[in-house]
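Below: protein 1.
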Amino acid sequence: MNRRSVVNRFELAREELIQSLRAKGIRDENVLDAIAKVPRQMFVSPLFASRAYEDTALPIDCNQTISQPFTVAMMTQLLKVRKGDKVLEVGTGSGYQAALLATMGARVFTIERYPELMKKAEERFKKLGLKIATRVGDGSVGWSRFAPFDKIMVTAGAPEVPRSLMQQLKDGGIMVIPVGDRKVQTMFLVERRGKEFFTREVDGFRFVPLVGKEGWQD
């Protein structure tokens, strides 16, 4: 199969995925446009490149996963990302979610606990020409140096909402975070209004655990 055929195959699969996401309730055109622009096949193992646009989670290094596209799209839609927003992402993983946020015009700060994953993510960001601030460390305590953030997205399941992350939200800010046990989590939308925080449940999903001082212990 020649390169043009491969590219056309990915383009067709990506368009089919976008139509599927629309049918499942993704309405934010900015989210869908970013998914159309970011090549997900760059963020998966070459072994799974042919499955890059299936609506399913896929394994990556360090026993982690790249989340199901619907989950990624729904979390991004809930975050209501706008151009210029300062967004903290906890759990870089493959880098796909951070790339989507940056493509939407956000100023992205992303934290990953595995140096190996971060190194590969940074290489992908460079290839795509994306300027994303990165850090290897404990994402459960956030990144206080650059706080407050307009939006915070946590891509790993936490036992509870970390207080440090709540405090790093600016007034009027939004955080999306899965909370529950190590197998099943409920998606929470947290909004800060002054000194008060308001939460609502969205739905049940499954994520790798958020490990750290204010998350699960190793």
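Below: protein 2.
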Amino acid sequence: MSYETLLRRTDIAGVYHMPQGDTESLVVAAEANGYMVFRVDLGAARDKQQMLDAIAKSLAFPEWFGHSFDALLDCLADLGWRPAEGYLVLLEHCDGIHGRAEADFVTTLQVFSNAAEEWREQGVAFWCLVDMLADGISWLPSVT
């Protein structure tokens, strides 16, 4: 199964570890499926506020974004300002924020998972791939 085929699987779309190596292949596959791709660099985030700011900026959230976990879910589960066949969010450089604000980071991943569930009900794939070394989330199914 290729990345292009895997990413079309709305039934398993959700939050996973980002595969090691060539993320560009994932981006190309997502774009081939008509997906919007968002790269979120969390390398400089030191706390919840900075993490939410980085996500909001990278996903071009509307001005009304309230910088809370509820508001994050509202925006992730809508994305009406970014219509697409599906979505791929790459959370990059997550080890620092995971270490500095673990509870907030875990809650953020739960919000992304909840958004994926809401999109799944609409038949839309919403993927969030997390670049970090720590365990705690599933690995993306392998492709051949």
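The chain has a mean pLDDT of 95.
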